[in-house]
Design goal:
Layout: E1 3-5, E2 27-29, E3 51-53, E4 61-62, E5 75-77, E6 85-86, E7 94-95, E8 108-110, E9 118-119
Parallel strand pairs: 1-2, 2-3, 3-5, 4-6, 5-8, 6-7, 7-9
Length: 133
């Protein structure tokens, strides 16, 4: 499977194993759901993912290692969530340095419409191909 569209549903949570075995997945759309949190290892098998759409959910927290397996990612859409922090060891409303580590292919990153008030130095380090923020 290369494309999985789970948008416009009523998903509120996902298990760590939900995406297991989807090594060929390139596009994943989980926008317009009610997801509040994603397990840290949810994308472990999705190493070929190029587009990840998580817009318009209720996501308030993301572990700072959640995107590390996604080295092929070109588009990451996190807009219109309730993001307050990224990582389990930081203050609310803060993005921690290294969150986007190893994401050299990301060209588009949407974070608008969230509750982020502090972005620490080097948070976007590793986003070498970033064109739109």
């Amino acid at each position: 499977m290369e494309v999985l569209d789970l948008s416009n549903n009523v998903l509120t949570s996902l298990e760590t194993s939900t995406l297991d075995g989807l090594f060929n997945l390139r596009i994943l759309d989980m926008s317009r759901n009610s997801l509040g949190h994603l397990p840290a290892d949810i994308f472990a098998d999705c190493t070929n993912l190029t587009q990840l759409q998580l817009s318009k959910n209720n996501i308030s927290f993301l572990d700072n290692t959640i995107f590390h397996p996604l080295t092929m990612l070109e588009g990451l859409y996190l807009n219109y969530n309730e993001l307050q922090h990224i990582s389990g060891q930081i203050e609310i409303s803060t993005c921690e340095p290294g969150t986007f580590k190893n994401m050299n292919s990301v060209r588009i990153l949407y974070l608008d419409g969230n509750n982020i008030s502090t972005i620490e130095k080097d948070t976007f380090q590793g986003l070498d191909s970033l064109k739109i923020l």
